[in-house]
Amino acid sequence: MITVNTQIDPAYQPQIKIDQLTVIVKDTLKSCQVHQAGLTVVITSDEAVQALNHTYRNVAAPTDVLSFEANAEQDGFVMPKEGAAYLGDVIISLPAATRQAEAAGHRPMEEILLLAVHGTLHLLGFDHLTDAEKDEMWRVQQAILRKHNLSHVSPTE
Question: In angstroms, what CA-CA distances link 140 with 13, 30, 126, 154?
């Protein structure tokens, strides 16, 4: 069983389609042959994400998405539900996603879905530090997005 917990700042709840978010995160896990796991997706403000970026990565700048593995040394914002292995947390800045979506010409929810897939892949060990890693991560990411009719949504990196 796959468990996707969501925590959305109250001000942002009307803008988020939780069912769509949950489906794409579950599909990301299944696409990577993970069928029993749990994770949490948090939708929050630029300020909250920037504070986490500074605290945990020592980067005093905003970003769009952060992933925190549950087995990392400095983990945890949410306690997992019992049963599935807990992978970690994906933290997304809705204001950053909105700016990126406007710049790219698609809807903010589509950007949120991209960032959820991206953050989930990071929890599964994907990265984009080298060209080879980036090629593999982008290939998997685009395959998932294409399956959800989101092939027009691409990372802004």
Answer: 28, 12, 10, 12
94, amino acid identity: L
- The pLDDT value given to residue 17: 96
Alpha carbon distance 36, 103 (integer Å) = 36
Please give the tally of structural domains in the chain.
Answer: 1
Question: Residue with structure tokens 């069928």?
Answer: 35
Structure tokens at 49: 């994400």
Whole-model pTM? 0.89
| Segment 9-36, tens digit of pLDDT | 999 999 999 999 999 999 999 999 999 9
- In DSSP terms, 4 is beta-bridged to 39
Encoded tokens for 19: 């069912």
Residue 131 placed within a domain:
yes
Domain containing 80 — which CATH number?
3.40.390.30
Pick from 73, 64, 85, 67: nearest CA to 156? 64
Query: In this predicted model, what pLDDT tens digit does every residue of 59-94 receive, in sequence order?
Result: 888 899 999 988 655 444 444 445 558 999 999 999
In what order do the strands lie in the sheet containing 86-93? 2-8, 37-44, 86-93, 65-69
Residues 99-110 have a mean pLDDT of 94
End-to-end CA distance of the chain: 33
